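[scheduler] slot 2 assigned
[scheduler] job type: sequence-to-structure, two independent chains
[scheduler] chain ordering preserved from manifest
[runner] begin chain α
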Amino acid sequence: MIKRLGIFGGAFDPIHKGHTQSLKFIRNLKIFDEIQVIPNFVSPHNKNIQANDKHRLKMLEIVLKEFENIKLNDIELKNKTKSYTYDTLKCLKELYPKKHLSLIIGLDSLYSFTNWRNWQNILSLCSLLVLERKLNNKLRLNKKLENKIVSNYKDFFSGHGKILFLKNDLVNISSTDVRLKIKNNENLSHLVDDQILEYIIKKSLYKT
């Protein structure tokens, strides 16, 4: 049987409860043999990453040590180039040729997915597991993706190029909001895990 690998990427600047709750939710579904968390070096979506690689990696290490079968993969940080999903997936496919790869994304990312570099080739290497959240009702899914949607795990894991929605009640948090609250000395207990907040304060991150 082909092993199932989930891929959870992002800037993690910083990692927050939106990320950790998503990971716990997916882990508890027990549909993956392993999940790899992959921090970006430089986002192709022009996000302004503020904390350096060392701090972002350390914060991820602090959180992920408590997660079984969820591993940190620093492949994009080591490459030291703009982090394009297609390039990362090609590397992963070479490392794990017999594994089924699933890219875990939010609904907002799915709506913009056809703007991603080599998006069609991405779907030749993986399937998309989408964490469904309430968004602007005016947004519409590109018709090129509609026929790729499946409704169950059996179809989803039968090959690549599939899209499956996961309904959930996860909180919608952004790292931008977290950084703004840090700058304004606001309460973060509902947004960031205690150990991460302690690290941010100790290292004086996101103050400027």
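[runner] end chain α
[runner] begin chain β
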Amino acid sequence: MEDSSSSKNYFGATRWAIYDLGHTAFSMIVLAVLFPILFNEYWSTSLPEPEAKTFWYSVTLAGASIFVALLSPLLAVIAQSGGLRMKFFRVLAGTGIAGMTGLAFIGEGEWQAASLIYVLAAIGFFGANLFYDSLLIDVAAPGRRHFISGVSFSLGYLGGVLLLGGIFLWMQFYSEAFGAGRLFVLGALWWLVFAFPLLLRREAPQQAESAGDTSLRRHFFNLRETCIAFWRERRLRWFMLAYFCYIDGVHTIITSAVRYGNALGFSQNDLFLALFIVQIFGVPCAMIFGQLGKIFGAKPVLFSALSIYIGVALYGSMMPTGTLTLLGFETSPMFILAALIGMVQGGVQALSRSFFATLIPSGREISFFGFYSMIGRCSTVLGPILLAVIAAVFPSGSDGLLSTRAGIASITLLFVAGMVLLAKVGKKG
């Protein structure tokens, strides 16, 4: 018979993992689908030139990432020293939910308001994720963290499947921007419903001790101390260097896949279905990778997943533009690429989070996760630079795609670098 402690841990892990099902609404509705479309076709109609639309859209995305990257370590240190993690989590998640709702009420041509509200919502979303990730250490025992982390990502992909299906059906009935904008409200409600159990969580008493001096100067001093302590942790240092490289490759593939498929001539329907396939494969595979991490350890499973990613980048660079015959059925090569990405994307993200958690010394959980969040937000840098350099160096070729294909192939360098650096992390954990 399960004791009360086991039941409590099971409940804590369950409501923690369910949050991933809820906040996927922001990832799918805002980041992946509606915000890019509405900004280009609805909110930025007051901007005269296409270049201006692209510029301000890019500034909006970059601004949100910069704010989160700069704030994450400081907020984490303040939360660690003052026992404020759950308070910060509630405020930031509430900001994200309110901001997502606010996007539904922005009128045509009001790109400034759309940009401002998006930045606030993104700060709420990504900031809340910082404290959400750090809770993994509290809700799961060391031997179960890889699996529980995989379960949460699996639920996130399940949410992606349900939400993408809902978006597709909604678009069939509401083709106008205002009708589609109502999805922001429904998505915010989805997020709130699945976040509610975790929002009620209380901070553990030992984490709510007052730090005495709560001045901003003291917090910056604590941040400096935390930076020094972080750098002294050799295994953490090597892991974060590895993570910076390979997660940059993962994010570059995520952000470039649709544009690359479009350049190869695949239809919008094919690209939407490919995104759907990524989510479908991510549901079981994230959980499977979490279980494999529990059995074999995170590092060897991460090596396997990164090896598959190298194959994904190489296959993508050589991918034909016509149809393929697989097991007697004709299918789009874009669907095969999507299935391969879906197999490993969630696994890499889940195991990276849980492996990082095993490396953190006791008492530094929240503050060190601030650096993890910062690296995650700054990690789509090397890939785009590689793509730009390859595009400048390689000729376009007879079909105009040589430089584009070479750019996708170059992403393998990030995964190789990540594996080399990951090998330097000690065996323990």
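[runner] end chain β
[qc] chain β: The radius of gyration is 22 Å.
[scheduler] slot 2 released
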